[in-house]
Structure formats: C-alpha cells, structure tokens
Amino acid sequence: xxxxxxxxxxxxxxxxxxxxxxxxxxxxxxxxxxxxxxxxxxxxxxxxxxxxxxxxxxxxxxxxxxxxxxxxxxxxxxxxxxxxxxxxxxxxxxxxxxxxxxxxxxxxxxxxxxxxxxxxxxxxxxxxxxxxxxxxxxxxxxxxxxxxxxxxxxxxxxxxxxxxxxxxxxxxxxxxxxxxxxxxxxxxx
Length: 189
What we know:
Helix content: 55-70%
Strand content: under 5%
Radius of gyration: 25 Å
Largest sheet: none
Structural class: mainly alpha
Number of helices: 8
Order of helices and strands: HHHHHHHH
Number of strands: 0
C-alpha cells in the first residue's frame, strides 16, 4: 500500500550495516576529542598554533583507523607528517624538518595501509613523493645539498622529463613487444 518500510523490513538490518551506522555516529566524537586535547595543550602553552596541522592530521588518522576508509588515510598521513615537521622546525629553526616530516607523512600512508591489511594491496604510490621528500630532507640536514646547491630542482625536472619521454621496447599494439610475435604455422592446404 504505502512506500514506508514495515517493521519486519526494518529489523533486517545486517550486522555490517549496524557497525557502519555506529561508526558514523561515533566518528565525529572521536575527531572532536582529539582536536580538543590538542587545543587544550595549546592553551596551556605546551604547543602553539603550529600544532593545528598535526592535530587535524592525527584526527584524520584516528578516523582511518576506526573506519578503514582510505579517504581519511591520505590527508591524515600528509598532514600529520607536515604538522610534526612544522612543530620541530618552530622549536629548532631547522628548515629541513618540514621536508623530512612531509616525506615521512607520505611514507606513513603506505606503511599504515599495509599494517592495517588495506584492500588496495599496499599501493606504493606514496613512496614516490615520500622517498623524494625524505631524501632531500635528510640531504639538507646533512649539508649534502650545499654541494649541489641550487641545481637539485633542475635535476628533478630532468629526471621527470626523461621518465615522460623515454622509449620502451617497440610494441605491436597488443601489449607485446614486436620481437615476441607469435608465429603460427601455416594452415594445411
């Protein structure tokens, strides 16, 4: 008669759907608690405004750990790493800390995905920017960048152009190299 579900239909909510509804209900509370703790520490002078980026990142990582939603992991890893780098830089005046923190933040995306049994098979893409930023953060901290000085951005550009325009083995259009062509015997007469 009507389009309203019956009580029987409403009682058929599966256990998975109940968990999903529970997570949606609890998640905002967890995020607000994490942010509240960080802001309380900021009011007491233990950390300053530089901790806001890290606090938001930590809240997103908590959301990821609770929901396993990859959409929380990527910004959570990046913002936490960047925020920790900002905090360290503000206390030590070491510019390399921001690069290193950001690089480790990208790397943490891969690590947390693998450790939590991610459905994506441990996507390795975060290791590319993470590796580059971590390398340059460590190189700057060690003084190595003083050796190559102003040239390292140009080196990155050259490597990127090479990767874009490098020639692979010739292909026959079917995904096989030309030298891997199948040879079929001629049909019988």
